[in-house]
Amino acid sequence: MTALAPIPPKSSVDEQPRNRHYVARGRVSTIVTHLCVIIGVLLSIFPFYWLIVMSTSTTGEIFGYPPKLTFGSSFLENVRNVVSSVDLLQALVNTIIVSTLCAVLVMFFDSLAAFAFAKFDFPGRKWLFVLLIATMLVPGSLSLVPSFILMSALGWVGTLQALIVPGAANAFGIFLLRQMAAGSIPDELVESARIDGAGFFTTYWRVGVPLLRGGLAFLGIFTFIAAWNDYVWPLIVLVDPDRQTLQTSLQNLNSVYLTDYGMVMAGALISVIPLIGVFIIGSRHFIANIAAGAIKG
Amino acid sequence: MSAIAPEHPSAAERDPRARRRKKLREVLPLYVAISPFYLLFAVFGLFPILFSIVLSLTDWDGMGDISFVGLAQYQFLLADGRFWNAVGNTFIIWFLSTVPMLFLAMVIAFLLHQNIRFTKFYRVAFFLPNVTSMVAMAIVFGSVFSDTFGLVNSALTALGLDTVPWLSSPWGIKLTIAMMVIWRFTGYNAIIYLAGLQSIPTDMYDAAKVDGASMRQVFFRITVPMLRPIILFTVITSTIGGLSLFTESQVLLGNSGGAGEAGMTIVLYQYNQAFTQFDFGYGSAIAWALFLIAAVFAIINWRLVSGRGDDAAPRISRKKEARR
Questions:
Q1: A contact residues 208-267, partner B, Cβ 8 Å cutoff
Q2: Cβ pair B112:A149 closer than 8 A
Q3: Domain boundaries in chain A?
Q4: Given an 8 Å threshold on Cβ–Cβ distance, is B44 in contact with A139?
């Protein structure tokens, strides 16, 4: 389906030179289109701009009227205040650990299962896959309370593994990678690996992983961002004030030091910047895959 | 070795027990490969769900003995004004956010589909709100819409208009939360619609042009019906997201849901009951009520979106027949 996408640009290029009047009208409408889009983009970007303005201003400047719309010079002071109020650096380290481990585990376990489902036959394959898809329909909020009780029975309340282990493999990623593997890994390659005497795991590592690199990159970034932003579950399970993630730590900062806006905003900025970096690096893969997932799903 | 095996069946393959053992050796790694998900789901997915059914029939605070109370939690829920207030709030916020959001997303997708330049940059810019943490952005929105010093009220004052008590009035609270949702998810939905637009074959548009169809006719008779499954997808994801709204309210207004609980959503109420009041039984009952509401809503959505599309499709063909 997506293979058809390159056709539209060609036809419009053909049409334009034919009729001068058409070209002129096209130019006006192009400018209008850009203007509309740019207004939308500004609205999308503005809260980030405003976050930077506030995190570089003193609280007095933020409360002032008329509001100051340009960057201030108090960023380092605000950051110093954040660091002395809550252990945001420890929270940052915790978040990086959780997000990275989640991403790596999900990439590994999901691709392993996806490769088996896509390229091999075994008894029960079909209904196991149907079962897998059915689990995606179960809403997460249903199990918040019993999951907490389970974690306390395991003695995991307040620990980072409570955030990592339950999400180490997920149905979404297996489904996604299975679709990709079915389409992009030729049966001949898998067959010839088998003839060469390679077992399943060798074939997975030598044939599956290299050919699924694109999908794995997307799944890794997706999981990393989702784990980074996760809020409800860490809020419930991380009861120890010394062991928090960025999101819960930021909320503590926000509710305790409500009056020092400059400082709270500096904390918010710290929690957002690494994520934006990861997104922009992987944005091409990311956006294309999000869209493709919706079309095929 | 195995390539010649079918021609000269070895001793091992002639013996059924050995063959079964060989087959097992072949499929065993496959089960090992798929097992992590199923094991994790059994422990951290299925078990909690079954356990929450049991919990919802009890009156338990997490300590001491569990006492079964039958359906008393559900009876209480049906008569609980705070729960129904949360249900009402959730639906109002869902409606206030989803309708403008999907409309704007469609407009943006339509504009980005016009073969303009910088589309790649625009897509990233529109998608950015979706990947940033809601906690940080709820704090930003809280200050932008602040009653006293917020940017929005400052702008209203500068224009000589009355300020709006965004964070202390029932409608102000709901509008602010709805705007956060719109801000965060419009770009996401626009990207999805854009991909849908790009998958519509261009010869359909060419045929419409030949038939002399206007832009409006093209949009409502071709674009919308062709996008129907994708619109359904976005409506369903928006509904699931809207019904599980939590972070926006909790960060903006705290565990109480703001003045008069005007920003109390269903999941926030569940969190409130289960983890600030430690009423695990009632918290579980609320979770199941939400599940039921979500299921009913998904079915209604499905009916509405797919039903309207079925009417539209034959209309195109009838129009074409008439013109001929």
A1: 225, 228-229, 231-232, 235-236, 246-247, 250-251, 254-255, 261, 264-265
A2: no
A3: 2-78, 86-256
A4: no
Residuewise pLDDT in 10s, chain A (297 residues): 333 333 333 334 344 444 444 444 567 778 888 899 999 999 999 999 999 999 999 888 888 777 788 898 889 999 998 888 888 889 999 999 999 999 999 999 999 999 999 999 999 999 999 999 888 877 778 889 999 999 999 999 999 999 999 999 999 999 999 988 988 899 999 999 988 888 899 999 999 999 998 899 999 999 999 999 999 999 999 998 889 999 999 999 988 877 788 899 999 999 999 988 888 888 877 888 877 777 765
Give the best residue of B27, B41, B131, B156 to mutate against chain A (max A CB count within 10 A): B131
CATH 1.10.101.10 applies to domain A86-256 = no
Provide the b/e sequence for A256-294 (b: ≥16 CB within 10 Å). Answer: ebeebbbbbbbbbbbbbebbeebbeebbebbbbbbbbbb
CB distance A295–B196 less than 8 Å? yes
Please check whether residues B182 and B85 belong to one and the same domain: yes
Task: Tell me, yes or no, whether B261 and B201 share the same domain.
Answer: yes
Structural domain for B94, as ranges: 80-323
Helix (H, G, I), strand (E, B) or coil at B226: helix
Instruction: Please indicate, yes or no, whether residues B194 and B285 belong to a single structural domain of this protein.
Output: yes
A/B interface, count of CB pairs below 8 Å: 283
Pick from A119, A120, A145, A209 the residue to mutate for testing the B interface (most B CBs within 10 Å). A145
pTM above 0.90, yes or no: no
- Whether the bond between A210 and the residue before it is cis, its omega within 30 degrees of 0, is no
